[in-house]
Design goal:
313 residues; 31% helix; 28% strand; disordered N terminus
């Protein structure tokens, strides 16, 4: 049977251990499976950081070498009483986009669009390719909890319960990935710029000789450079300098770090210009003889006039 059916069967078997549902009935959450999924999602959110963090999708090895320049969602965030409403809408839109690029059929697409309209109160507009949109969002545990409660309190849903359950299960899987990504990400903020680096081991490679000494662990990393909306300067990324170190306690570790010194070489061939509120994101990688390692360095940036054109080398 499908994973959805399996989980719902498991939920039903645990009904006896659940608390009375009378308190949830007043909020329009009377279905036992719905309550169970709600509690699962709440528990997942409670282990996330209370501070701001980046919601992002897992690294896809197929994106290796790709780069894009996009507008950040945070550029449009209001600071008045509509902020909570905007945050819920932004989170729902992000999850809808994650759902829509996840290999769905036309029926599933219809369910996603109906869920979004029920939750936000407006139609979802998805013109263009997903590469045209920011598929990440700065959020926090509090924002996610607020959005989750808002979605589950919808009393006039047009979506069958089983479809809502499927989407809740997808959201649960995404949240598991979010927790994992947090453990493999680092954030640096300076001079109006925020840089997020996230890594993932994507396999092993060898020189053709099948022995451990020739085995390399392949890592992909995604770099996100964001010119924060509150910054009043336009900047251009000119290049980068990296130092990649293998685990010093690894028995196969080399003695010298790998140094990448390209202050004018851009990143994966791009020298992007970032206006305030824009993001440059790219994926690259490296190979290590050890299963763990570290990577540190810096980007070389220049302040340029607004309207300067990005370049490719």
């Amino acid at each position: 049977c499908s994973f959805t059916t399996f989980l719902l069967c498991s939920i039903t078997k645990n009904v006896r251990r659940m608390a009375p549902i009378s308190t949830f009935s007043r909020r329009g959450i009377s279905d036992v499976a719905t309550i169970r999924l709600y509690r699962i999602l709440i528990r997942q959110l409670q282990i996330l950081p209370s501070h701001s963090f980046l919601l992002q999708t897992p690294i896809n090895p197929k994106d290796y070498g790709r780069a894009r320049l996009i507008r950040s969602v945070s550029q449009q965030a209001p600071s008045d009483e509509r902020k909570s409403e905007f945050e819920t809408s932004s989170l729902c839109k992000l999850f809808a986009r994650w759902f829509l690029v996840d290999g769905i059929d036309s029926d599933e697409e219809g369910s996603i669009l109906r869920w979004y309209k029920d939750s936000v109160g407006e139609e979802f507009h998805n013109e263009g390719d997903h590469d045209d949109f920011d598929m990440c969002l700065w959020s926090s545990r509090g924002m996610l909890l607020s959005a989750l409660r808002s979605c589950f309190r919808v009393e006039t849903s047009t979506l069958p319960a089983i479809e809502k359950h499927r989407l809740a299960i997808k959201a649960s899987i995404y949240l598991q990935n979010v927790s994992s990504m947090q453990e493999r990400s680092s954030v640096s903020t300076k001079d109006g710029l925020s840089i997020v680096a996230t890594s993932s081991c994507i396999g092993t490679a060898s020189s053709g000789i099948t022995n451990n000494q020739d085995m390399k662990h392949r890592f992909a990393y995604r770099i996100r450079v964001e010119n924060l909306p509150e910054n009043d300067k336009t900047v251009q990324l000119l290049g980068r300098s990296w130092m990649i170190n293998e685990d010093p306690v690894g028995i196969m570790a080399t003695t010298e770090p790998v140094v990448v010194d390209a202050p004018t070489g851009g990143a994966v061939g791009h020298l992007p210009v970032l206006e305030p509120g824009y993001v440059f994101e790219y994926m690259s990688g490296c190979e290590l003889a050890t299963k763990t390692g570290t990577m540190e360095g810096k980007f070389h940036m220049a302040i340029v006039p607004s309207g300067t054109t990005s370049a490719i080398v």
